[in-house]
Design goal:
nine-stranded mixed β-sheet, about 35% helix, 14 helices
Length: about 400
């Protein structure tokens, strides 16, 4: 009981600290309140670019996923597709707690450069179904992306994954090495090491109850402070949609999916043990003001050290540090990120080249079988949402820095 009380006190302290950050933001008089607005169903969220281009939405059933995990109903995912006649294809995979709209500064930009773009809502998120009995491991998430790739007949796409989506993309590369051409990892999860005690503590603290209890002030703090360094009013749609979504009919299912996803993120030995199996061209991009990696609740440290570990273990990868950028840098520093990502794509996978570039051949016998992947865990009693970290990671010297001046007010 003493340990449970300590965990509860710590989680309560985390919520209060996050709320204080939100109150500080609200106290400036420069932000809006959305608490009194009506519920926003996920189906009614508009998926569009900042310029107002609405993307066509499609649904895809996942019979293979349903069969493998014995789901009672075949789930469906929602995805958007732009420039379908082009090649190669870039598949965009969002991070924890978000949805495909987090790529709103990239979908049209990458498509305009001549690429076929698909961005999806993972199971449990956005407009996709949220089955409670799906395991939500990163390996299972990778299988969902693979089923989409096969169903669409995509020829070895490039995967672009943010945070949890980065760990999912690496899992895909390890599980299905012949079915992709390259990786763009954006503030990726999966490189960080967690001790058994750290994993258990975070699983105990991160619960659905914690997610459901977050009020508007806490949401302001977690999103604005946890994910951004250059916050501007252009990003307030994130606050409004999150505040109003808590009232919708699917939010409890979404919260539970978040909890199980956190469990999947923490059990990342499959990726860490098999980074050497990733042989496709890989770009790793992160911000030097990332407040979420490494996890400040568990052990803190420097983002650069975590990213350098992945870079050192993925042969031939390129590591780029963006100066003055937070965790969600595809939003926070979208211009700089797009320049780096499009440069990487143009170098390795020029638009209009319909046959994807083949990975460099390895000497016979060099590629070993991937280390065993963890078995899918049975559904558990719902735990909680991972509130965004409260303390910033210590500033570090970037590995390969692109010096840019922050645009907008820095936190």
């Amino acid at each position: 009981m003493a340990q449970q009380q300590l965990l509860w006190n710590l989680s309560r302290a985390a919520r209060r600290a996050t709320a204080l950050l939100g109150l500080a933001a609200l106290g400036t008089g420069c932000v809006s309140s959305y608490a009194n607005k009506p519920a926003l169903e996920y189906a009614n969220v508009e998926y569009s670019s900042p310029q107002g281009n609405t993307w066509p939405e499609s649904r895809l059933a996942l019979p293979q996923t349903a069969k493998k995990y014995a789901l009672p109903i075949t789930p469906e995912i929602t995805y958007v597709e732009v420039n379908p006649g082009a090649a190669p294809t870039v598949v965009m995979i969002h991070g924890l707690g978000s949805y495909l709209k987090f790529w709103r500064y990239q979908v049209d930009e990458v498509a305009s450069a001549g690429y076929h773009v698909i961005a999806l809502d993972m199971l449990g998120y956005g407009k996709s179904d949220k089955p409670a009995t799906f395991p939500y491991t990163m390996e299972a998430m990778a299988e969902v992306v693979h089923e989409l790739v096969r169903a669409k007949g995509l020829e070895r796409p490039i995967l672009m994954g943010h945070s949890m989506g980065g760990q999912t993309a690496m899992s895909y590369s390890i599980e299905f090495p012949g079915d992709l051409s390259g990786l763009i990892l954006v503030s990726p999860a999966g490189f960080e090491a967690f001790s058994p005690k750290e994993k258990q503590w975070f699983k105990n603290v991160f619960s659905s109850k914690l997610i459901l209890a977050a009020d508007e002030e806490a949401i302001w703090g977690s999103i604005r402070y946890g994910n951004f360094y250059r916050w501007t009013s252009d990003f307030e749609w994130l606050i409004e949609e999150r505040v109003r979504a808590v009232k919708n009919s699917q939010f409890k299912a979404y919260a539970y999916a978040n909890v199980k996803s956190v469990h999947g993120l923490l059990d990342n030995e499959f990726v860490r043990a098999n980074l050497h199996q990733i042989t496709v061209p890989t770009l790793i991009v992160h911000g030097d003001r990332d407040r979420l990696i490494p996890n400040p609740y568990l052990h803190g440290g420097n983002t650069a050290d975590v990213m350098e570990y992945g870079h050192a273990n993925i042969a031939g990868s390129r590591l780029v540090t963006l100066s003055g950028c937070g965790h969600s840098l595809q939003l926070d520093c979208h211009q700089e990120f797009n320049r780096v990502a499009l440069g990487f794509l143009d170098k390795h996978f020029p638009a209009g080249k319909h046959k994807a570039a083949q990975p460099e051949p390895q000497p016979p016998g060099e590629r070993s079988a991937p280390a065993s992947r963890p078995a899918a865990q049975p559904p558990e009693v719902a735990p909680s949402e991972a509130e965004e970290p409260l303390e910033p990671a210590s500033p570090e010297e970037p590995d390969e820095e692109l010096p840019v001046e922050p645009s907008g007010g820095a936190e």
